[in-house]
Amino acid sequence: MTTPDIISTALANVGRHKLRSFLASLGVVVGTLTIVLLISLAMGIRAQINRQFERLGLDRLTLRPGTGGGAGGGMGGPFGADISGRRTKIIGAAEIARWQALPGVLKVTPEVGLPRSIALELSTRGRNQPVSSSLAENQLFNLINGQPRPLAGSLDLPDEGGLIATQGALQALGLANAEFPALIGQTFEVILRSPRGETQAFPLRLAGISVSSGRRAEVQISPATRIAMKSWWFNKTDLLQTEGYDSVTIRTADVRRAHELIPVFKGEGFRVESLEMIVEVADRILLAVTTMLALIASVALIVAMIGIANTMIMAIYERTREIGVLRALGASAGEIRRLFMIEAGFIGLIGGIFGLLGGWLAGVVLNQAIVWFLHSRDVTVEGKFFVVSLALALGTVAFATVIGTLAGVLPARRAAKLDPLVALRHE
């Protein structure tokens, strides 16, 4: 028997017993469908995470003051301090100017955090509203809640004397949305109130208004004004010289340049954080989760493998005389073995194809359900949560085919060992 003869005979045998072949491949369908669903979900979540990170910008680095642990930071105290509470490597104006002059650096944004004990109030037209302060380059917050969008004005904060407020803060002051465009450029006061009741007002010019979810009352304040506020709070006039900035966000021309600058800044003794580093960690975690899900889903295919083997063994008993005829016509034991293995492989292939189609359709339906549910909760999403790539489709079908072929090894060996004379006399 030639190889094309073996393949055509195996395909005819599978089609001759349609119900049996369908039941044998049903386990493969379920297993393949499960694999496609779980892995496509993991791939979709990975794509969603990467999309969010790319939207924030992988070309940005966050530098923090050095700690007492050597270059690149160590187990120092909070905010880049050693165990004595002093910063071992501060970020001052000289560092800001030097980094801004580096090739490939587009923008350097220094940040100064205000102590949580500081009570802030936004004041205008005789009305005060307690507000919280947020950093202009809060990447973690933007990752969770999305990039802020301007409602009026610009969200580019000036280096000094500027203010950006959320719509929730202005609405709490009794200002209507229709008034927002006219408010840009007007002076608001941000009042600091100490626990002892002392107050200090800082007049700031409104540069922009950002969209906020709910009625969140937040403001962003220029770094120079933050330093003045912090100096007043701690009663220190040389705060910038002694402690420097709390962090600096550096935006580079591209991701490659950001990656090149990481060892440079670490070599200078500063702590470096980048979204690219977080993406790498997230990718490793998702790869481990995807592998675990694939292994769990493979259990269903192992069970299907047992079902195919059982079906093929029963087929041998029913076709013993047929095997004897083939041997009498000159078919070798190896050709009989290949015939039954190819039949089992066809069963796995059919189950893999239908399982792939079923998993893809289920993913489409579930993705629409997820999008509908998130939209009902006022959460806007883009892209798909179930992503079936070409590699996943081909790999899944190939794996199902291999499982079917392996399931046919034992029955094929059994068929090849049949004595031709005994097989011909079988009733």
Characterise the protein shown here.
This protein has 427 residues and is an alpha+beta fold. It folds into three domains: 3-54 and 281-425, no CATH class; 60-110 and 245-253, no CATH class; 113-243, no CATH class. It has helices at 3-16, 18-56, 93-100, 139-145, 167-172, 180-183, 223-234, 239-243, 255-267, 275-318, 320-328, 333-376, 390-407, 409-416, 420-425; strands at 60-64, 105-111, 119-124, 127-133, 150-153, 162-166, 187-193, 199-210, 218-221, 247-252, 271-274. The strands form two sheets. Strands 3-4-9-6-8-7 form a six-stranded mixed beta barrel. It has a four-stranded antiparallel sheet with strand order 2-10-1-11. Residues 69-85 and 138-145 have low confidence and may be disordered.
Task: Describe the structure concisely.
This protein has 427 residues and is an alpha+beta fold. It is built from 15 helices and eleven strands.
